[in-house]
Write a structure and sequence with these properties.
The protein is α/β, with parallel strands linked by helices. The protein is built from six helices and ten strands. It has one domain: Rossmann fold (3-Layer(aba) Sandwich), CATH 3.40.50. It starts with a strand and ends with a helix.
């Protein structure tokens, strides 16, 4: 079995930190913006020499690398800051007029999910985690951050996933507490299958999420 999971949250909400407890021997990380990961020792765990790390915002490069990681037998592939694929492409085409560029941006992102990630996930049994920023409308509705209206109005990215977790946090006893929310509040797209997670709030730990998904699959 396998699953593709979308993790949404504001910058600093703990999305990238949630990678820390995954097994680097079984995990590969694609870092779209190439920034440092926010946990100690990440460069020792994830690097090119270990064949489990790649930094790029090129769709063609990322598709090749996903296939390469699949051939290496990785169990988990994480795409961190995946929304920057769209925003980076937007900035590259900022001086180009017309609406075709928005169609291209939407198609590139949609095809990455539907024509690369999902087929490889099913064929190879790989679990994919896509980490992305959120966007909030004037009506306080919260969704994945995208570029243009095509993905929002015609596709709805969250609808392509069975599991959409929200990275959130609050202050408890003067200390920050970060967690994943597993179900929606009416103004967002957070969701997970009934019975997969016992609690509304779970640790912001992708290894914990992976374990729960495997347990759920084993009960089906």
């Amino acid at each position: 079995m396998s699953e593709q999971v979308l993790i949404l949250g504001r910058s600093g909400s703990g999305k990238s930190t949630s990678i820390e407890n995954l097994d680097p021997e079984k995990t590969a990380v694609i870092n779209v913006v190439g920034k440092s990961m926010p946990f100690k020792g990440w460069k020792r765990k994830y690097n090119i020499e270990n064949k489990n790390y790649y930094a790029s915002r090129s769709y063609s490069d990322i598709i090749l690398v996903i296939n390469r990681f699949a051939q290496l037998g990785k169990e988990v592939i994480v795409l961190d800051d995946v929304q920057y694929l769209m925003s980076g492409e937007f900035m590259d085409k900022a001086k180009i007029g017309g609406w075709d560029k928005y169609t291209d941006m939407a198609a590139n992102f949609y095809n990455l999910i539907e024509k690369t990630i999902k087929p490889i996930s099913r064929e190879k049994g790989i679990y994919f985690f896509l980490l992305s920023h959120t966007d909030e409308s004037d009506q306080n509705n919260i969704k994945m951050k995208t570029i243009g209206k095509l993905l929002d109005e015609k596709i709805i990215v969250e609808g392509l996933f069975t599991i959409v977790l929200f990275a959130e946090g609050r202050i408890t006893e003067n200390k920050p507490l970060k967690y994943f929310r597993t179900q929606g509040l009416g103004n967002d797209s957070c969701k997970s299958p009934r019975g997969m997670f016992e609690e509304m709030e779970i640790p912001n730990d992708l290894n914990y999420v992976l374990t729960k998904i495997k347990e759920y699959e084993g009960e089906e």
